[in-house]
Specification:
Number of helices: 4
Order of helices and strands: HHEEEHEEEEEEEEEH
Strand content: 15-25%
Helix content: 10-25%
Distance between the termini: 99 Å
Number of strands: 12
CATH superfamily of the largest domain: Umud Fragment, subunit A
CATH topology of the largest domain: Umud Fragment, subunit A
Structural class: alpha+beta
C-alpha cells in the first residue's frame, strides 16, 4: 500500500454538527406537540413585549394616575394620563403644558395613601405596571400646569384679578369654574431651567405659590420633570387630548 498521506474526508453537505441535529429534533418534537408549541409562542411574545415596553418606558411614554383634586376640572381624582417622556429633554416644555414632575423637595409633606384600583381599571394598571408602562409610585409625583418658563416675570394679580406674564394679562379658561386665578399674591421671575407651576383648581392646589420658603423657591427644576401629559386615557368616556391653550399665551413675549 502507498505511504502517501491521504486527503481528509470532506463532510457531506447534508451532514450537520451534532448539536444542530439535537436542536432540530427538539424543534420537531415541539412542533408536533400543540401545547409545547403554544408555550414557546407565548414565551417569545412575552419576551418581545418586555423588550418593547422597556424601550417605550425608557424613551417614550408612561402612564400615571391622579391622586388629588388640584387639577380639577381638567383632571379628576383617579384619572389616568399618558405622559410624553421626551419632554423636556428633546421637546421643549411650554406655558400651558400639563406637566408631571418628581417632588423637588418638601412639596409632599407625607406619603399619600395609595389608591387601590379594582375591576377593569385594576387589571389595566396591573398589566401596565407589569410591562413597565405605569408608574406604581404615581402618588410620589405631582401634576400641575406650567405658567412660567425661564426668564418669565409672573405676577398676581392686576387690577382685574388676572395673572400677568411679562406684563401681559392672561385669561385662563382651564381654571376650575368659580375659582379666582389666585388668592395669594406673588411677584416672581423664573430662573433659567426652572418652571413656575400652578394647579387648575387654584383654591385647592399646593403649587409653586406655597413653596417659596424651600431651597427651590417654589420653582420646579428641569431635572425634576418626568414629562408632559398629553392624553387623558381613563375613564374612556372622558378620553381626550390635554390642551395646552396656546391662545392664552400667544401675546406673551419671551424675556
Amino acid at each position: 500500500m502507498s505511504d502517501l498521506p491521504q486527503a481528509p474526508l470532506r463532510r457531506n453537505r447534508r451532514e450537520r454538527p451534532e448539536s444542530n441535529g439535537v436542536i432540530a429534533k427538539i424543534m420537531k418534537k415541539i412542533k408536533r406537540n400543540p401545547i409545547a408549541s403554544f408555550i414557546v409562542d407565548v414565551l417569545v411574545i412575552v419576551a418581545a413585549a418586555l423588550v418593547l415596553s422597556l424601550i417605550i418606558k425608557t424613551f417614550l411614554i408612561r402612564s400615571f394616575f391622579i391622586p388629588s383634586g388640584s387639577m380639577m376640572d381638567t383632571l379628576q381624582i383617579d384619572d389616568r394620563i399618558i405622559v410624553n417622556e421626551l419632554v423636556p429633554d428633546l421637546v421643549a416644555l411650554n406655558r400651558g403644558d400639563v406637566v408631571v414632575f418628581k417632588d423637588p423637595g418638601g412639596w409632599l409633606y407625607a406619603e399619600p395613601e395609595q389608591v387601590e384600583s379594582r375591576g377593569l381599571v385594576g387589571l389595566g394598571d396591573w398589566f401596565m405596571e407589569a410591562f413597565g408602562l405605569s408608574a406604581a409610585d404615581s402618588s410620589q409625583h405631582l401634576v400641575k400646569r406650567v405658567i412660567g418658563v425661564g426668564g418669565d416675570h409672573v405676577i398676581c394679580c392686576d387690577t382685574e384679578g388676572k395673572l400677568t406674564i411679562n406684563g401681559v394679562p392672561i385669561t385662563e379658561p382651564y381654571i376650575l369654574e368659580g375659582v379666582n386665578p389666585s388668592d395669594k399674591e406673588f411677584d416672581v421671575t423664573v430662573p433659567d431651567n426652572m418652571f413656575w407651576v400652578m394647579g387648575d383648581n387654584r383654591s385647592n392646589s399646593e403649587d409653586s405659590r406655597f413653596h417659596g420658603d424651600l431651597p427651590s423657591k417654589g420653582f420646579v427644576p428641569k431635572d425634576s420633570v418626568v414629562g408632559r401629559a398629553f392624553v387623558l386615557s381613563w375613564p374612556f368616556e372622558r378620553w381626550a387630548w390635554l390642551d395646552n391653550y396656546p391662545d392664552v399665551f400667544k401675546n406673551v413675549p419671551n424675556n
